[in-house]
């Protein structure tokens, strides 16, 4: 099985996504979505950004590699009666089932960054966006001191070494890499812009219980705990994560955890047709 698919199907990202809904909605509200806009939400999970976009009238297709999250997204859309929002399985590195220039916007919030072959991912996002359209990515930033970058860093330190040619998803949080990938897909450098933004995680219990959610349901942390258990280091990993979650918690209530995390927001404005990048 594709290891990237296995990683995300291993847990249940919905349990984490439930703590990210407010920021997902706020991000989408800030995008000036208009009725009928065709949006591809890539690496959409169970629809944290896809559903709010559909509520604003966009025509949304969510694509994700994890079948359990696609199923959950379709269920959530159905339960809300959102007939303009559907989810299907697909790989951001190869969107062969989607036609060239078939979306006004491609949105990918902490999604496509996790796909392998980043140059292919950039090329595919550009290919399926129409000229005049827009790509919006949210990417975690390597070595950033806030929550997610640190969870991934700590988890990696307890996990088996990665294959030599593995390109870290976190490289999507480095502006130079993003520019390199999109310019290779035919986008002029001046069409790519960056801002630092914040996502908040809100969980209705203390930080230590939030760590347990990551331990049980978040693929990268599950793998780190499996490796740590096999060499007797699971207790150290638990302690490091608990210290991180407590340090980053901004809630003054004992029974609520509220953690802001910084990310790099990338906007690519496709002003010109990028025919040369389509490869035909
Ligand atoms: C951190 S979650 C974010 C999900 C969602 N965008 C959100 O904001 O809740 C990462 C998502 O990327 C998906 N993903 C990972 N690799 C992928 C790939 N190659 N193609 C499509 N989706 C992928 C995972 O299945 C997972 O749903």
List the main descriptive attributes of the protein structure presented here:
globular; 7-stranded mixed β-sheet; alpha/beta; 7 strands; binds S-adenosylmethionine; 280 residues
Q: Topology of this protein?
A:
Elements: H1 3-10, H2 14-17, H3 21-29, E1 38-42, H4 50-55, E2 59-64, H5 67-80, E3 85-89, E4 103-109, H6 118-128, E5 129-140, H7 147-158, H8 175-184, E6 192-203, H9 207-217, H10 219-230, H11 234-248, E7 257-269, H12 275-278
Parallel strand pairs: 1-2, 1-4, 2-3, 4-5
Antiparallel strand pairs: 5-7, 6-7
Helix pairs in contact: 1-10, 7-10, 7-11, 9-10, 9-11, 10-11
The structure holds S-adenosylmethionine (SAM).
Largest beta sheet: strand ordering: 3-2-1-4-5-7-6
Instruction: Tell me the overall shape.
Output: globular
Radius of gyration: 18 Å
Q: Give the distance, in angstroms, between the N- and C-terminal Cα atoms.
A: 31 Å
Number of strands: 7
- Percent of residues in beta strands: 15-25%
- Main β-sheet description: 7 strands, mixed
Mean pLDDT: 95
The helix tally amounts to 12
Residue share in helix: 40-55%
- Output the helix-strand order: HHHEHEHEEHEHHEHHHEH
Helix and strand composition category: alpha/beta
Attached small molecules: S-adenosylmethionine
Low-confidence stretches: none
Structural account:
The chain is an alpha/beta fold. The chain is 41% helix and 21% strand. It has helices at residues 3-10, 14-17, 21-29, 50-55, 67-80, 118-128, 147-158, 175-184, 207-217, 219-230, 234-248, 275-278; strands spanning 38-42, 59-64, 85-89, 103-109, 129-140, 192-203, 257-269. It has a 7-stranded mixed β-sheet with strand order 3-2-1-4-5-7-6, with helices on both faces. Strand 4, helix 6 and strand 5 (129-140) form a beta-alpha-beta unit. Helix 10 (219-230) runs antiparallel to helix 11 (234-248). The longest helix is centred in the C-terminal third of the chain and has 15 residues, at 234-248. The mean pLDDT is 95. Residues 4, 8, 13, 17, 20, 24, 43-45, 48-49, 64-66, 69, 91-93, 109-111, 114-115 line the site of S-adenosylmethionine (SAM).
């Amino acid at each position: 099985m594709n290891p990237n698919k296995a990683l995300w199907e291993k847990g249940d990202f919905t349990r984490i996504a439930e703590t990210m809904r407010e920021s997902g909605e706020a991000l989408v509200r800030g995008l000036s979505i208009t009725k009928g806009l065709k949006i591809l939400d890539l690496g959409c999970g169970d629809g944290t950004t896809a559903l709010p976009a559909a509520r604003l009238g966009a025509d949304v297709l969510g694509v994700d590699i994890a079948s359990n999250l696609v199923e959950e997204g379709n269920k959530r859309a159905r339960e809300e009666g959102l007939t303009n929002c559907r989810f299907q399985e697909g790989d951001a590195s190869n969107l062969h089932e989607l036609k060239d220039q078939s979306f006004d916007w491609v949105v990918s919030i902490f999604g496509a960054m996790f796909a392998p072959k980043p140059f292919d991912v950039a090329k595919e996002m550009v290919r399926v966006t129409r000229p005049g359209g827009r790509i919006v990515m949210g990417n975690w930033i390597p070595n950033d001191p806030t929550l997610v970058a640190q969870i991934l860093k700590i988890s990696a330190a307890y996990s088996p070494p990665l294959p030599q040619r593995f390109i870290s998803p976190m490289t999507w949080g480095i502006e130079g890499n993003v520019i390199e990938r999109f310019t290779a897909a035919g986008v002029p450098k001046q069409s790519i812009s960056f801002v630092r933004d914040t996502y908040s995680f809100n969980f209705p219990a203390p930080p230590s219980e939030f760590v347990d959610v990551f331990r049980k349901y978040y693929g990268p942390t599950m793998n780190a705990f499996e490796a740590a258990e096999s060499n007797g280091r699971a207790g150290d990993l638990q302690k490091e994560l608990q210290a991180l979650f407590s340090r980053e918690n901004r809630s003054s209530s004992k029974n609520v955890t509220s953690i802001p995390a910084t990310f790099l927001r990338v906007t690519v404005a496709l002003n010109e047709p990028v025919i040369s990048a389509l490869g035909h």
